[in-house]
Each structure stands twice: as C-alpha cells, then as structure tokens.
C-alpha cells in the first residue's frame, strides 16, 4: 500500500487559452434580402445575455469575458494589450439561428475582425467580416446558425487590445442541437441551485469565466498525452510516481464537468478512459491500478486505491449524462462495473465503510482503517441511483454515524480490542507503507479528534498530509444530507 502525494489545490501555471483554428476562406458577409432580414431581426430576441463566455485572454481582474454579456454598459471585457489575434466566444447552450450581432466597443476596438459561428466550438464559419472597423457600435445583420458564436479580431484599431462593453447576439433556438455535444454544457445552469445554496459574490457570468480560466491553468499544468496509445493522463509532479489513480479520477470528473467550455473535453475524457482500461488493478481488473511510472507501466503491486476508483466511477456516470453511452465507450456499463468492483473489493462488508484499496483484506492491519477523505457522499447517492444497490444507502448511514461519533469524541483508535470500525484520519500518516507499524491502541486525545481530517499527521508535528484538503472539502460539501 502506498500513499501518493497529489496536490489537489496546487493547480499552477500561466493562463493558456488555446486559439481555435481560423478558416482561411475569403471573408464575406452572408447577406439576405433586406426586407426579409429586417423582419427576421425584429422577430428574434437577445439570446446571449448571461451565457457562458470564454476569451483568448483577459487584461486583468475586472475585465473578464463574462462582463461582455452581463447587460451592464459600465463593465467590459478587455484582452491583453498589443497582441493579435484575440477572440471572445459565447456558448448559446444549443444550436440557434442568428440574425443580428451588436458590438458595443470601448475605445480599444477591432479594425479587422470576423463574426463566426460553430456547431462544435472547433470548426468555424464566417457570417461577417470587415477590415475597416472604426469602433463605436457595430450593429450587424447576419445569417447563420450554431451553438457557439465569437468575435475573432485579427487587427487592432489602437495600440491597446480589444475591448467590448457589450456583445449581444440575437436569434432563436433552432431545436437541432449538436450531435454528440454535452447535455449540460458548463455554465448553462440548466438545473437551478437548491434553495439555501451559498454562492460566491459576483455576477454568474463572471464566476463562470473565473472557473474556465482556472480550468485552463489546470489543463496546461497537468493534462498530458504521454506514451502514445491514444492515452491522456493527469500528471502528478510531486507524487511518488508521475501518474496516480486519484489524479486520473478527478481528471475525469473535472473534464466531464467542463464539457461545453472546452471543445476537447470528450477527446480528453476518452483518452483517460482508455488509460483506465489499459491499466487494470492486479486484484480486480474492473478497477484502476493506482500508480504508473514514467514509462506508463503500473508499479508498486499494480493494485487499486479507493479514492481514485471512487472518482473514476463518478466521472464515468457524468460522461454518460453528458454524451450518452453509444460512442466509442459505453460509459454507463464501465461505471456500473467499476461501482460493483468498489463494493466487492474496496468496501468493508462489516463496517460498511470504505477500505484504503482493493489490496486490504480481512486479517491485515489496515482492514478496519477508513480514510475520511474518501467519504464522498454525493458519490454514494449517485452509485445508489445508477446501480439500484441499496448497499450504498448503508454506506451513507455508516459514514454519517461514524462522523457523528468522531465529532463527539466517541471513537477509539483503530487497533483497539475489538478493532474500531474506522480510523480517524488523524492517525493515518500520509506515506504509510506495507508493513509499517499499526497505530497505537487507545482513545483519541481531544486535541487530535478536533482535527478530524484524512491524512493529517499526529497533533503537534505541524505536518499536514495530502488528503487533508480532500477531507475538508468532502466533509463540508456533504455534511448536511
């Protein structure tokens, strides 16, 4: 058994937003008969307000792309200064016919730019182009359709960048949808927040843009295509080995969630799925081997780790909801097999609490240790719904009961007589190896109980294990069931 070093919070790197390929065809306006166009414009409504927006760059805080669709003419998007080309893209959430685009430029305007539509966010079609822009307000009659629409600037009108007070798109849903596109694109907010949800302050479009910007930082820093074979991996530079299961797991969850904002999300996700299939656990082949080396070979026993497997199963269920399961991979079938394997080999059948991995079996010193950072209640609920297996209700109940007892200081340390059904995470060093000494017997001192986070070292050492942020996150996100 190993404990990998994975930084969940250290998503470092410069903001890198990939430029999309630009059609090289001669720019042109797709015109309609004048009277017909005017009638269509009059009938169509504003469809861009508050929609998810991404941009090639942002000048700085306060100039995020979402400000171009917030309906406030006192706020604006601004790109980096002195750089061509630049673009700002709106995701309408579904295919729309588009009849009018209105650009309200700040002083930093585009002299040469194109208005483009796309069905998939990758392949673009010009619906308007100019090389003689002069700023102010450009109210354009266009004819086109797509889910995505962008202003692609190729030549600035000033030494600065590109800046829009408002970017308005008028049209109507066409009802066609994008074949293979995500059912719940990031930022669409198709499902309302539950009553009482605490949200960060700020306009929703601004919050969406911040998430997209951070996602792109994470993607640039950690998403890799190494060793060929059609694989994608999430790299963990500070771990014992470069590829660990928990990184692949949360990579799958993140990528499926960001579908719609990232046109490559499905391609990356499928590369992660192929990695999972090609690196099975040596104990249960429906689980993922926990660690791989620089040559992409499974190492350290090739067995599974519960934290990674939980997220792999959850990510596969998200993918089924986003893209369905009739493509290259049957996400739903893979998810159900993964869930059944977690139950079989990573769940203690007596305590109904998760084990550390599929390598732990009855009689070994880790059998009654459960890592609090693995207690992902939303995953338990989802597994129950997807599989119909009531075992996951029992797992939720056991977690709730154990957490309550831990908070009240009623849990002995693992290794008591009889063994405690849980290890408060405070007693599990982050890098415990097979054969390491068992935690001491006896009660948990109050000052150590209060910490209650998976992977934290014993009190007084001043050291925090790698699972600590995970515990805080999963506990606070799922405590109130």
What is the residue-averaged pLDDT?
79
Class computed from helices, strands and strand pairing = alpha+beta
- Element-level helix/strand string: HEEEEEEEEHEEEHHEHHHHHH
State the helix count.
10
Percentage of residues in helical conformation? 25-40%
Name the beta content range: 15-25%
Distance between the termini: 32 Å
Q: Could you explain how this protein is built, in words?
A:
There is one protein chain. By secondary structure, the protein is α+β, with helices and mostly antiparallel strands. It is 27% helix and 17% strand. It contains ten helices and twelve strands. The chain has helices at 34-43, 204-222, 245-257, 265-278, 306-323, 331-345, 377-387, 391-407, 446-449, 468-478, and strands at residues 45-46, 53-55, 77-78, 86-105, 110-118, 125-130, 137-156, 163-173, 223-224, 233-234, 243-244, 291-292. The strands form three sheets. Strands 1, 2, 3, 4, 5, 6, 7 and 8 form an eight-stranded antiparallel beta sheet that branches. A two-stranded antiparallel sheet has the order 9-10. The chain has a two-stranded antiparallel ribbon with strand order 11-12. Helix 3 (245-257) runs antiparallel to helix 4 and helix 7 runs antiparallel to helix 8 (391-407). The chain is elongated, with a radius of gyration of 26 Å. Residues 1-43 and 413-464 have low confidence and may be disordered.
């Amino acid at each position: 058994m190993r404990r990998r070093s994975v930084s969940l919070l250290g998503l470092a790197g410069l903001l890198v937003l990939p430029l999309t390929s630009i059609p090289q065809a001669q720019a042109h306006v797709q015109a309609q008969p004048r009277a017909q166009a005017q009638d269509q414009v009059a009938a169509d409504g504003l469809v861009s307000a508050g929609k998810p927006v991404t941009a090639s760059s942002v000048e700085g805080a306060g100039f995020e792309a979402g400000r171009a669709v917030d309906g406030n003419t006192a706020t604006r998007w601004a790109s980096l200064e002195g750089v061509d080309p630049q673009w700002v893209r709106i995701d309408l959430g579904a295919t729309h016919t588009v009849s009018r685009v209105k650009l309200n430029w700040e002083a930093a305007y585009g002299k040469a730019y194109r208005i483009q539509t796309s069905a998939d966010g990758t392949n673009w079609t010009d619906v308007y182009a100019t090389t003689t822009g002069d700023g102010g307000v450009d109210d354009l009659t266009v004819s086109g359709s797509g889910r995505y629409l962008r202003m692609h600037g190729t030549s600035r009108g000033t030494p600065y960048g590109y800046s829009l007070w408002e970017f308005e798109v008028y049209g109507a849903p066409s009802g066609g949808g994008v074949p293979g596109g995500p059912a719940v694109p990031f930022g669409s907010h198709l499902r309302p927040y539950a009553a009482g949800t605490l949200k960060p302050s700020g306009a929703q479009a601004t919050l969406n843009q911040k998430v997209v910007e951070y996602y792109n930082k994470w993607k640039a820093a950690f998403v890799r295509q190494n060793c060929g074979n059609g694989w994608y991996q999430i790299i963990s530079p500070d771990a014992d080995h470069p590829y660990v299961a928990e990184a692949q797991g949360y990579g799958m969850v993140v990528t499926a969630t960001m579908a719609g904002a990232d046109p490559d999300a499905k391609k990356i996700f499928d590369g992660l799925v192929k990695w999972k299939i090609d690196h099975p656990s040596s104990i249960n082949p429906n689980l993922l081997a926990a660690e791989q080396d620089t040559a992409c070979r499974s190492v350290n026993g090739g067995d599974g780790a519960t934290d990674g497997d939980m997220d792999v199963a959850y990510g596969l269920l998200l993918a089924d909801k986003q893209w369905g399961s009739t493509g290259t991979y049957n996400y739903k079938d893979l998810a159900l097999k993964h869930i059944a394997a977690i139950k079989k080999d990573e769940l203690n059948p007596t305590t109904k609490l998760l084990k550390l991995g599929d390598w732990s079996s009855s009689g070994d010193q880790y059998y009654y240790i459960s890592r609090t950072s693995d207690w992902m209640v939303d995953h338990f609920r989802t597994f129950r719904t997807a599989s119909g297996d009531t075992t996951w209700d029992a797992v939720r109940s056991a977690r709730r009961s154990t957490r309550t007892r831990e908070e009240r200081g009623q849990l002995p340390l693992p290794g008591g007589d009889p063994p405690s059904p849980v290890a408060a995470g405070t007693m599990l060093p982050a890098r415990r190896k097979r054969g390491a000494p068992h935690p001491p017997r006896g009660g948990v001192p109050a000052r150590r109980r209060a910490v209650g986070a998976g992977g934290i070292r014993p009190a007084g050492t001043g050291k925090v294990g790698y699972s600590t942020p995970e515990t805080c996150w999963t506990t606070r996100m799922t405590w109130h069931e």
